[in-house]
Amino acid sequence: MKTKAISFYFDTTCAVKLFLKEEQEKGSAKLKEYLEKHEYKQYLSSSLIKLEWQSAFRAKLKGNQINSQQMKKLEISWHELISNMVIYPIDNNIIENATDIVKNTNVVGRVRSLDCIHLATYLMFKRSNKDIILLSTDDVMCNLAKEYTGKYFNPLE
């Protein structure tokens, strides 16, 4: 049975999982199963995801986890996905909000600047959609979402 329509904010750790099998990327199957349960209306992310996705798959190509033919197919699928995704640009407000997150968080551990850009973008979307769910496998990112009373799903949990 499908649930109500929900918006999902992707960080790159989960966006990568959409394109790979469980054997290639742990949590892929659980993420895909979770998304299939929802009649999602939107996928959302920061423009940062474009660079991070390319970097992640370049590493897989250079590490011989995928070949160049697979990379070309993945890039086609990626462009199809992001053409239907709401992508928010990194503007001064996002940078200022990300800086505030770094300065004010109580989350233990290293809080990376790029994660804070994703979280600031997620929180910007959350202002108009309280039910948005952050998709991430990064524990720090999930703890940041929790700290800011955000909903999240981690397919590795």
Could you explain how this protein is built, in words?
By secondary structure, this protein is of the alpha/beta class. It has a single domain, classed as Rossmann fold, CATH 3.40.50.1010. Helices cover 52% and strands 11% of the residues. The protein is built from 7 helices and 5 strands; from the N terminus they run E-H-H-E-H-H-E-H-H-E-H-E. It has helices at residues 12-17, 28-36, 48-62, 68-83, 92-104, 113-126, 139-147, and strands spanning 7-10, 42-46, 86-88, 133-135, 151-153. Strands 3-2-1-4-5 form a 5-stranded parallel beta sheet, with helices on both faces. Helix 5 crosses helix 6. The protein is globular and about 45 Å long. The two termini are 22 Å apart.
Write the layout of secondary structure elements.
Layout: E1 7-10, H1 12-17, H2 28-36, E2 42-46, H3 48-62, H4 68-83, E3 86-88, H5 92-104, H6 113-126, E4 133-135, H7 139-147, E5 151-153
Parallel strand pairs: 1-2, 1-4, 2-3, 4-5
Helix pairs in contact: 5-6
Short overview:
The chain is α/β, with parallel strands linked by helices and 157 residues long. Helices cover 52% and strands 11% of the residues.
> Could you state the order of secondary-structure elements as H and E?
EHHEHHEHHEHE
Q: Main beta sheet: strand number and arrangement?
A: 5 strands, parallel
Strand pairing plus helix content: what structural class?
alpha/beta
Please give the radius of gyration in angstroms: 15 Å
Q: Any idea of the CATH class?
A: Alpha Beta
Unreliable stretches: none
How many helices? The count is 7
Helical fraction equals 40-55%
Please state the average pLDDT score: 92
CA(first)-CA(last) distance = 22 Å
Strand content: 5-15%
Strand order in the largest sheet: 3-2-1-4-5
Gross morphology: globular
CATH fold-level name: Rossmann fold
Total strands: the figure is 5
**What is the CATH superfamily classification?**
5'-nuclease
**Architecture, CATH level 2?**
3-Layer(aba) Sandwich
* Count of domain modules: 1
